[in-house]
Amino acid sequence: MAPVTPDLRRLQDEILGYARAYGLDPFETYFEVVDYRQMCEVAAYGGFPVRYPHWRFGMEYDHMLKSHTYGLSKIYELVINTDPCYAYLLEGNSRVDQKLVMAHVYGHCDFFKHNAYFAHTDRRMIDTMANNASRVRRYMNRHGVERVEAFIDVCLSVDNLIDPWAVFPRAEPATPDAAEPGDAGESGVGRLPNVRGYLEEYVNPPEFIEEQRAKKRREADRLRRKVPVRPERDVLGFLVQHAPLDPWEADILSIIREEAYYFLPQMQTKIMNEGWASYWHSRIMTERALRDDEVIDYADVVSSVFQTAPGRLNPYKLGVELFRHIEERWDKGRFGKEWETCDDLAAKETWDRKLGLGRQKIFEVRRLYNDVTFIDEFFTEDFCREQKFFTYVTNRRTGRKEIEGREFAKIKKMLLARLTNFGQPFIYVVDANDKNRGELLLAHKHEGIDLKLDYARDTLRNLEKIWRRPVSLSTVIDDKPKRLRYDGSEVTISDETAEIRLP
User: Fold this and answer.
1) Is the pLDDT score of 409 beyond 50?
2) Fewer beta carbons below 10 Å: N end or C end of the chain?
3) Which is more confidently placed, 113 or 172?
């Protein structure tokens, strides 16, 4: 890695000046120049070359290097969410490429700094990653590389079992405690209404009332002793606290969990983040930074970034077009009750209240939304039609993808389903002492799509290696409640008999 040249430094100052003139407020950003091998290496480590050693980073590096060598892909830039931000420039890039990359990076850095979902991330993650790597290396020296890497493999296979909302403050429901004798909650237990006092002992026999009180006390006591008290979505956090792990294993699991939470906002805002950066590099380049002889080269690069392969969603294209759509709507006043209730298509075509609120609105959206709320709020039928979205099916005879339809409601539903929880199932820890045998019980919140059973089996096998007791998962398969259980030797599927209530 090398620092930027004086020419690139002048270019950086120029692009930063344009970005600030448009109202962007990025973190201070340091650029480093790398060759394509170094770029692939840094990308394989997720932007952090100081991360702990593991074979998967080498595998990803080899894949990226071959893809670059054979001309299948090219990494133009890489930027990480820290304060200050660090970004990498490919030394083989042309001057136009470097301008484009810098403008794009400043869009990302502004997003990192101001989006609400990044507010809780560790801005000194480079130091944290380096410390984590030192601890992992010590464990490898002490316990052996293969043993430590094997445990990291297990942890990485379940690193998506976290609670995306755990970093935000929220009111916790009161813990169910046993009622004190004689309080209002218990005194009326099991009593039937009685307006004739002399019939009280017949309508509400004392022995029956006492039996109901005792039953309620037993239930409250059971809930008080239950671990967890209520279903817990942060499965990794629960395992760190309660799994019978050696200290070094618990530390590695906590490292994997910490890094999963750090990268979480980038997964939650992929479309917005790339759309915001693309919006601003387009404005900066086309309105300020491009010279006349650079237009063709710029268009060539951008066309490859915004092209969409059949059957795939391009976050750059969707994000930038939706930001532009929002800006146009708020500039022209195409929002609010009057706009929504207007049924005159001709009037809507020429609707322009000249409010000029577009720039203010997109900065507000950048600050408050994530991908799910972004799509839910602003992916309108007009936008869907303008961008020619459609659903498709694969022709079983030819194997080719064919357009199925352009129904707006179905398209939006599929988009939201793909983005909600990143298309992954909702899994909760329900009981750490299932059937009073120290077994771990998980539950799947069924949202209309069955689990992939091969993934579920592998997950149970790896969770059993962490819990070291049998692990079960309650779910729904073919509309029937089922329980998958792994006891260390085989995965069995049986009917679920107990009802499990999830948030």
Assistant:
1) yes
2) C
3) 113
Q: 411: which 2 tokens?
A: 């398209």
Cα 227–chain centre separation: 27
**Burial class of residue 88 (count of CB atoms within 10 Å of its CB; 0-12, 13-18, 19+):** buried
Q: Would you tell me how many other CB atoms lie within 10 Å of the CB of residue 146? A: 9
Residue 206 pLDDT: 79
In degrees and rounded to multiples of 5, residue 326 shows phi and psi of -60, -45
Q: For residues 371 and 268, is the Cβ–Cβ distance under 8 A?
A: yes
Distances (CA, A) of 215 to 97, 105, 209, 423: 72, 63, 10, 42
- Helix, strand, coil % in the chain, rounded to nearest 5: 55, 15, 35
- What's the pLDDT at 181? 41
- Virtual torsion, Cα 265, 173, 238, 434, nearest 10 deg: -140
Radius of gyration of the chain (CA): 28
For 127-160, write each residue's pLDDT tens digit: 999 999 999 999 999 999 999 999 999 999 999 9
Backbone angles phi, psi at 482, to 5 degrees: -135, 160
Looking at residue 124, its amino acid is R
Average model confidence (pLDDT) across the chain: 89
What residues does 34 pair with on adjacent strands? Answer: 90
Would you state the pLDDT for residue 223? Answer: 62
How far is it, in rounded angstroms, from Cα 389 to Cα 382?
A: 11
Contacts of 284 (CB under 8 A, 6+ apart): 15, 18, 19, 22, 103, 106
For residues 139 and 142, give the distance between their C-alpha atoms in angstroms, rounded to a whole number: 5
Strands (DSSP E) found in 105-240: none
Terminus-to-terminus CA distance in the chain, angstroms?
A: 49
Bridge-based pairing of strands 391-394 and 439-445 is: unpaired
Q: Which pair of structure tokens corresponds to residue 400?
A: 């080719």
Q: Token pair for residue 158?
A: 């379940």
- For the stretch 163-201, pLDDT in tens is 998 887 665 555 444 444 444 444 456 666 766 666 777
Counts for the chain of helices (H) and strands (E), in that order: 21, 11
Indicate whether this model's pTM tops 0.90.
Answer: no
pLDDT score at 185: 45
Place of tokens 């004392």: 206
Answer for the pair 24, 107: CB distance below 8 angstroms, yes or no.
yes
Q: Which two tokens stand for residue 173?
A: 């429901």
Establish how many alpha carbons lie within 13 A of residue 8's alpha carbon, considering only the half-sphere containing its beta carbon: 21
Close Cβ partners of 339 (under 8 Å, ≥ 6 residues apart): 333, 348, 351
